[in-house]
Amino acid sequence: MQAEDALNASLTGIFDQAIEQGRVVGAVCAVAHQGKLSHISAHGFADREKQRPMLPTTGFRLSSVTKPIVTLAALRLVAAGILELDAPVTQWLPDFTPTGPQGEAVSITLHQLLTHTSGLGYGFNQDSDGPYLSAGISDGLDHVDFDLAENLRRLSSVPLLFRPGESWAYSLGMDVMGAVIEKATGKSLPQAVAELVAMPLGMSHSGFVTAGLDNIAVAYANSEQGAVIIGENEKVPLPEGIGGSVRFSPSRVADSQAYPSGGAGMYGCAPDILSFLEALRTGAGLLPASLQSAIYQAHCGPEAECAGPGWGFGYGGAVLVDPQATKTPQSPGTLSWGGVYGHNWFIDRHNDLTVVLMTNTAYEGMCGLLTLEVRDAVYAALNAGYIPAA
Length: 390
Prior knowledge:
- The structure is a single chain.
- By secondary structure, the protein is α+β, with helices and mostly antiparallel strands.
- The protein is 30% helix and 17% strand.
- The protein is built from twelve helices and 15 strands.
- It has helices at 3-20, 66-79, 110-115, 131-134, 148-156, 173-185, 189-198, 270-282, 289-295, 323-326, 364-367, 369-383; strands at residues 26-33, 36-47, 52-53, 59-61, 220-221, 228-229, 234-237, 245-248, 267-269, 311-313, 318-320, 335-339, 343-348, 353-359, 361-362.
- It has an eight-stranded antiparallel beta sheet with strand order 3-2-1-14-13-12-11-10, with helices on both faces. The protein has a three-stranded mixed beta sheet with strand order 6-5-15. A two-stranded antiparallel ribbon has the order 4-9.
- A hairpin with a 4-residue loop joins strand 13 and strand 14 (353-359).
- It holds the Pfam family Beta-lactamase.
- One of its GO terms (molecular function) is hydrolase activity.
């Protein structure tokens, strides 16, 4: 059996079983090794009810896969001398002045926004009567009738979870960074991201507002009855131990009036995301060596358990510090993250390996068994010599 066939057979079996068991409705998986596309495959349905098959080019709501893209845009502005990582947010957003936990005055830096050490949080990580929900703050995934400036006003009105730099909490910091990028460039976030990231990398099927939903996968969520369609502004409980509930608006991606969320607002397809992640792996001439290296530095150590035991946080994703703590075959320095609509990705620079898994099913495709099965199958193939080198 040829190397490509062995990997294809292994992954096909994994996806067939996940679909048969109702864990996912559809998925696309892409693998690059040493700069070469080693595998791409589509499985199941983009739209189960209309029997529309999943294709490698099917579009997905990216949710938090947006974050590393906007992070790269911000780092390119740092490289150009337009932004400074240690600069206070108020240099660009003078009215964004949330207080510390005790009401004290504090200063948040751009570095802290990028690394989720600002003291900001997410509403979906709070109880139903939590301060973010009480203030009507959007997580950038739901449909609301106000703009980004109003959302940041509301966010600024709530005290921080901790003093900036003193801890780690997944947060709306990237939405704040999106507003900083707009102020610094004088352009809308979609335009800035297109010019700084998407266009240089040929990401022609990615953006913030799609013309229609015909090529976007229908959004599903896991339930005791199998995968069910996610309704408008429907709250879907996160897996136990991860958080509260995410309020989704699947139509948001086609709404030109929805504000551009720097943390969750983009759409894209697997080939585009693989190209982007490969650029993060190699640098692609977009960043100087110092900033490229900083992406993979654990600015927060493994004590933060950003993606479980052994994981710290870099720029754009979690950084693996201790593989033994999490029992993963991935190498130290691996960068990884996902998205609540059902996505998971990682970059293992030691093995010149990039893997992207995109599904239309929350939350199996983000943190379910499928993510581990795909990861382990790829490494088994790599170790057996079944992933061809360039």
